[in-house]
Amino acid sequence: MTHNGFGPDLVEVFGPSQQDGGPELVQLLTPEGERVDHPDFRFDTGGEPEDEVVRGFYRDMVLTRRIDVEATALQRHGELGIWAQLLGQEAAQVGAGRALRPQDFVFPTYREHGVAWCRGVDPLNLLGLFRGVDQGGWDPAANNFGLYTIVIGAQTLHATGYAMGMQRDGVVGTGDPDRDAAVVAHFGDGASSQGDVNEAFIFAASYNAPVVFFCQNNQWAISEPIERQTRIPLYQRALGFGFPGVRVDGNDVLATYAVTQAALQRARDGQGPTFVEAYTYRMGAHTTTDDPTRYRLSDDLERWKLKDPIARVEVYLRRNGLAGDDFFAAVQEEADDLGVHLREGCKALPDPQPLSMFDHVYAEMTEELAAQRDGFAAYLDSFEGAR
Amino acid sequence: MAQKVTLAKALNMGLRKAMEDDPKVLLMGEDVGKLGGVFRITDGLQKDFGEDRVIDSPLAESGIVGTAVGLALRGYRPVVEIQFDGFVYPAYDQIVCQVAKIHYRSQGKLKMPMVIRIPFGGGIGAVEHHSESPEAQFAHTPGLKVVACSNPVDGYWMIQQAIKSDDPVIFLEPKRQYHADKADLDETATPEPLFRSRVVRAGGDVTVLAYGPTVKTALSAAEAAAGEGRSLEVIDLRTLSPLDMAPVYESVRRTGRVVVTHEAHVNLGIGAELAARITEECFYSLEAPVLRVGAFDAPYPPSRIEEDFLPDLDRVLDAVDRSLGF
């Protein structure tokens, strides 16, 4: 079928719309916990015992989910103003996070709590932004994990520029595995409509920058379904920009790890950007202020529950005798400890002092801002016993 | 060792010196490479410093500034060229939400040493979007510093100082002056600090505040006024955020009369802020209200009538007359 000389129509090129991710979905562990092979991507643990790595992924995902559950509860208790939930996206984030090397750098959105966990950021530091005591409580240089970016898609350009900096620093394509580095830019399906994301694709392609565009397609941008953002599978867009795209089962931690690892290596080797579409589902709300019952049916949710990223790994580990009750109990205990750490730590986060709002506006403070600060300090001091 | 140079040449020399002094300095923008920029400000720099340091970018202003953010985070000192003032708006989000706030958001852990060069102002007979004066939109944004050079000597020094600054600087260049007047540039001189305004003509009757392209207008007005026995003091503000008010207050306390002139729209422009501050600090010295001479609050008109739209010598003198009439 053609459109009057405009070539084949979309269905002919891309196939019918696939609710389940389609046959192109890269998968190494099925929702039933069965290991399967893929012709292009294999689970390469770099010499580490495979079962140990999978147990590590399981632990990461359980603890990541616990961070999310605790933070959601803290919001309900009024301890956080808002929280951006990641429920259901643990495999996408842990797979992407564990594929990184120390020298790689990550530019997250505001939902990458699982990647932050993998990078060694204390999850308590993630809460400050949502509690309103700071705007990013970790040092990006300490873990090569950037600050959360709220403006949708803006960080994809920062990631591309940072990758261009790596090129100029001579840490791309040297062949030294401890030296070669790359960048991961996180974003979501909604962000794929942003101009900045499309500009990032163009800049990265033009300069062959070592950046992996990691899109968690969780099907929803607040209330807007993926169909509002795209008429074709998102990963197919990459070709139009001049670099490869791949769709991976975002609920399969092994596949996400394998695909991200391959994309990162491609970037580190100097072969340029890759688009990874992690096909997943936002099981929770957009944030704690959102109400998905207003715009989506519970059928979808029930269907995706069967694809839970953690349950399939547990089934795989148990069925193959790779982990027993002791292991699962130990992880549970660790999660409980993490819960205590978050609950107690969150409530103990100090409010910033009012005068701190003037700090760090500039690297070099201006006289006029210092005068404003001093005036406000004198005003505060004018109240008896105020400070 | 002074040589006579235009503003365009002085900026080119300043950029070259900054790149020689610091290998982390990069230039980025549309057509800045082989062409040397549409105004030739980066002429010859790609040939001498290579394509990795003088980067021709895709045609996407948000992309230019957004990737420059990443380069700065990686330890570079990007100097980006926005081709024309009216084309900066696609980058407005990156400038206001990212460039201006990253140091603050990170509690000082991340620095954003970026210079965004914008040729600004009118008077070149251009089509729409090529003659705008968006400075107030950036001066209104905490986290940014905004400066405007008015002459070749300042251009040479100020661009280097802006590049050395660890804060992001919006660097405004009066495009109609690029290839106009030449000035003696002594590269061995000691420049004054970047964030300082300067009295460029002493006088006692009325203080005229100007920056960028209107400094020349103000000086011409002062010359003409002198013929009528009126003594205008002209201050080149140079820095718009922060404002350097001390020389202004000192002057106003002597003259009691102020006229502000800029090419930007009068409504909520830099002149409005100057009027407010002068009123707060010099209320008892004022003999007349602070008067503003700027562009009218209409979009930039077709260029055949742009000289009616922009402040000129006669409108400045008219304001001086009104000020003295109080």
TrEMBL record, chain B:
Keywords: Oxidoreductase, Thiamine pyrophosphate. Residues 5-180 form the Transketolase-like pyrimidine-binding domain. Its cofactor is thiamine diphosphate. SMART domains: Transket_pyr. GO terms for molecular function: magnesium ion binding; oxidoreductase activity. Coiled coil: none annotated. InterPro entries: THDP-binding (IPR029061), Transketo_C/PFOR_II (IPR009014), Transketolase-like_Pyr-bd (IPR005475), Transketolase_C (IPR033248). PANTHER family: PYRUVATE DEHYDROGENASE E1 COMPONENT BETA SUBUNIT, PYRUVATE DEHYDROGENASE E1 COMPONENT SUBUNIT BETA. This is Alpha-ketoacid dehydrogenase subunit beta. It comes from Nocardioides agri.
